[in-house]
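fold-stage: in
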Amino acid sequence: MAKKRVLVKFSGEALAGEAGHGIDTQILNYISQEIKSLVDADIEVGIVIGGGNIIRGVTAAKDGIIKRTSADYMGMLATVINAVAMQEACEHAGLNARLQTAIKMEQIAEPYINRKAVRHLEKGRVVIFGAGTGNPFFTTDTAATLRAIEIGAEVIIKATKVDGVYDKDPAKYSDAVKLPEISYEEALMDHIKVMDDTSIALAKDNNLPIIVCDMNRKGNILDIVNGNLKNCSIVK
């Protein structure tokens, strides 16, 4: 069944490309074109991007010099940097895009207001949500699930470097088996890394399907929205 409103979650690392850090503008351009294909098909799109290409709160706080709360706020600011870049890329592709942040920074973005975000979506604007949930100790996976529920998205699409969920890391194990469909309970198992436990539990409580797909397969996200689930995995 075709979906009308979706939230797409990208990792910060996805923007870094082969360099492994920073922002590769060609990848930004590619992502914006994928998003444009959704908008052109009358799909309302929200976006959440991580900040791992710049800094991760957990990593910054690991030796105790920087407190975890401060480190997580640093990570939130990193997501805003990526979100600003994504907004620019979307506008370069001819889309109308709005950036809302969970931490107020009026010179850069609108503060997150749910009703305003929904109105933007209804008008065909892409809405990018930055600064996570605005709280430390919560990942951008949780932020993506929270925003998806708040805006009434019918599905959350986690666009990654792999084409779905596997029973173990396919980058490390050649015998890893793809799981086309799994339950929320299975997704919470330690050896299956879909999203963090909080985000999966939140999705379960609100019956929000999570689809994991390869962002590098051109046209894949649009295919998924149109009901073609061949090149992905679904958690429900």
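fold-stage: in (second)
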Amino acid sequence: MFRKAAGLLASMVVWSMSTAIAAETSLKQNLMTAADTKASGEYAFSQCRALTGQTFDTTKSTKKALIVGDSYACDFLNSMQENGYLRDYQIALRFIPYDCQTVAGDAAPKYIAAKDRSLCATPERADSLERAKAQMQEADVVIFASRWKPEIAAALPQTLHTLGLQPRQRVVVVGSKFFGKISVRQYLRMPANDLKKLENEVDPSEAKAINAVLAKGLGKEVLFVDPHNLVCGDDTSCPLFTDDVNLISYDGRHLTKEGARYMGKVLFQHSALGQM
């Protein structure tokens, strides 16, 4: 009897160690996969590219949502789709690269650096608010999501006024986010419990300060969603991993697939986005 009990105990110990080793191996593999900037970058932009330039079927009564912005708009799209949010909407996207962010109207060109004007003037390579304006008028919901430049954030209230969006339309502005420098080599040496609690100090001017400008300037008729505040609170440090120990961002700015799933739940479950 004693030998059987001892043998069973030994088997349980071996099984427990094997499970722990397998979990640790899986964690490291997930980390390496998420940190592959080429693969994660392809994920980040694949759905974005598929929907860029998509037109609405105006013969259908289905609600229409237009997402407008740069690579952060792609992140928002992924966050939404990973969780099935707005699945009852027709979805289209207008991609305006970070270097081409503009305000609407005659003053727009002054916001683009001389070196970027050729890119931003080429419709095949970069969209613009002016070119997207007609499709905005068709949408029931217009969602602006960008890595906002300070001057663009400050001018956004006037930009929205110039675009002439109608009271019947729901306008959403998604603020900026930043997770700081990603150091996979460091994370590979850390146990899972430490990774769950790991946070990065981030420059408050990168997201927090810009979001404060947006929150102050936008009127009550615009739904402003602050990713930094929802994920990081009022701190200048942000978590790097989800509760199930998946890396949120592969480069500090853009989301991994698991990060998009996590971010979508945070945005839609803790803001008025969930009522759409």
